[in-house]
Amino acid sequence: MAFKNIESNPILDRLPKHLRQFIKPQDYEDYSAIDQAVWRYAMRKNVDYLSQVAHSTYLEGLQQTGISVDAIPNMYGMNRILKAIGWAAVAVDGFIPPNAFMEFQAYNVLVIASDIRQLEHIEYTPAPDIIHEGAGHAPIIANPEYAEYLRRFGEIGCKAISSAKDYELYEAVRHLSIIKEAPNTPQDQIDLAEKAVEDLQNNMGEPSEMALIRNLHWWTVEYGLIGTIDNPKIYGAGLLSSIGESAWCMTDKVKKLPYTIDSTFQNFDITKPQPQLYVTPDFAHLSLVLEEFANTMALRTGGPSAIKKLIQSEALGTIELSTGLQISGVFTNMIEHNSKVSYIQTTGKTALANRDKELVGHSTLEHPDGFGSPIGKLKGINLAIEDMSPRDLRAYDIYEGETVTLEFEGGIIVKGEIITGTRNLQGKIILISFKNCTVTHNNTVLFQPEWGQYDMAVGKEVLSGYSGTADLHSFDLITHTISSTTIHEEKSPEKLELIALYKQVRDYREGTNFTISRTKVLEQLINRFPMDWLLPVELFELAKKGNENELCNTILDHLETIKQNRPEVGHLIDDGIKIASQEIVV
C-alpha cells in the first residue's frame, strides 16, 4: 500500500479500507510563501508564549514529532519520526465524521487537516487546519500516558452511538468551518451557517453517546488544562494552536474547574472562546474518567437501552448476545418484557458474526432484508438454551429433524422443523436454523414459512450494543460522500505578486538567494500592498539580526502607519516585533 505524498509505515499499513477513503494527498507544493509565513509567525508566537504555560511535553514533543518553527511540516518527515513513538499521521480535508476521526486514533494515527488558515484568521479558525492538528495535537502524543489515553479514547469513542441529529450537526459544522475559512465569503452566508449550527445545537434533544463523548474529547484533547486549579498548564490542541485563546484561557475571565465525569454534560460552542475549562491533575486521571463514562455506554451496559439507542441512531450498529453472537445491521424494532429484551429486529442488510468474524453463510447476501429473533429464556424452563448440554437439548426436542414449538418468556413463539445448530468455540449453541417456520408475538406474525429458512439467534440477554459492524468486511463501508470540500482561493495577479514578495524574503532568510534587496522589497510592498502587516514584520526581524538600524526604523514607521489604519492587527504587529530578535529554534 502507498499513499501519495505520504511515506507509509507499519501503522498506516494496518488501516482498514473504510478509513483510507478519508485520506488525501498533502500536496506540499500548494503551500504558498504566505502560508509558510503564517505558520512561522503562529509557531514563533506559540513557542515564545507556550514555553511558559504549556505542559513540559510540548517543546520536547515538537522535536520528537518532527515539527519545526520555520516550515509547515511535511508528512514524509512526520511519519518517519512519528514511527519511533508508535504513531503515524495522515492528511484529510477538514472535518471528517466523529466515528472515523476516533477510529483513526484507535489505530495510533493522527488525522491532520492539511490546509492552513488564512492570514486574516491567524489567531483562530473554526476549521481544522495544519496549525491546529500538527502544532496542537502532535507534540503532546510524545507523552506515553497521554498517547495511550488518545488511543484508548479512539477505541471507545468509535463505538459510541450517534443520533440522526448528530449527523446533521456534523454536516452543519463542517459547512460553517469551510465557508468561514474560505476567502471572500459574504457575511450573510456566514451568519446563516452560524444560525443553522446554533439552532441545531439548541434542539438536539436527549444527547447521544457520541454527543457526550465529544464533550469529553473537547474538554480534554482539544481544550484541556493540566496541573492545579491555581497553576494550570495547557495540553489541549485547540489552545496550543490558538495564539489568541492560549493567552485568554490563562486569565481570570475563564473559569477553571476540576476535570470530572460532570464535564460530559457541559456542551461547547465551536464558534466562541470557551467560558470555562477543566483541569486534570495528571494524564492518568483522564483515563479514569474515560473508563467511568465507558461504563455508561451501550457497549458495556447492553439491555433494552442499547437497542433503543441503536434504533434512534438510524445507522449501522451491532449487538452482542450472551453467547457471543453478534448481529450487525440497522435496528428498527424491539419487543420488551419485564424490562428485558425479548425480540430484536433489523431492516435491510444484516450480518451475523462471532468474535468480530462473520459466520459462514450469514453474510448480508443471506440476510438482505433484515433479521429478527427472540432473545431470552424459554417459558417455564429455568435453563437457558445456551446453557443446555446436548442431553438437555435432546430432552427438549431441540434436535436436528424435530418439529418443535418454543415459547419464550417474552411471549414470542417459534414453531418449525430444526435443520441444524451453529456452535461457538466454547461449544455453546449460538444459532438454530429452521424450515417451515412461523414466529409470532400475540397476534402478530413476525416470520412465516414462505420467507424461507429461519435463523434464530441464541442468547438469554443483550450484553453490548455499539456503532458500526462486528466484521469490517461484512458491509461496504466505502460509501462516504463529502457534501462540501474546502474552498481554495483563486489567486489573482495581485495576490501572486504579493506571494512573490514573501517568497523573496523567505529565500533570503533561508540562504538560497542573498542577492535580493530587502530595501527594494519593502519599497514595493509599501507601494503595492501598504496594509499587509506580516511581511514587514519578517523584514524587521532580518534587519534587526543584521543590526541595520536605519532599515529597522523605516519598517517600524511603516508598521505604525498600518496600526493606525488597521487597529485590529496592532497587537499582532507588536507581538511580532517583540519576538523578532529572539532566537526561537525547535
UniProtKB/TrEMBL annotation:
Family affiliation: Belongs to the biopterin-dependent aromatic amino acid hydroxylase family.
Highest taxon of the lineage: Bacteria
Keyword Iron tagged: yes
Protein name (database record): Aromatic amino acid hydroxylase
Record's keyword annotation contains Transferase: no
Taxon lineage: Bacteria, Pseudomonadati, Bacteroidota, Flavobacteriia, Flavobacteriales
The entry's keywords: Iron, Metal-binding, Monooxygenase, Oxidoreductase
Cofactor dependency: Fe(2+)
Gene3D superfamilies per UniProt: 1.20.58.690, Aromatic amino acid hydroxylase
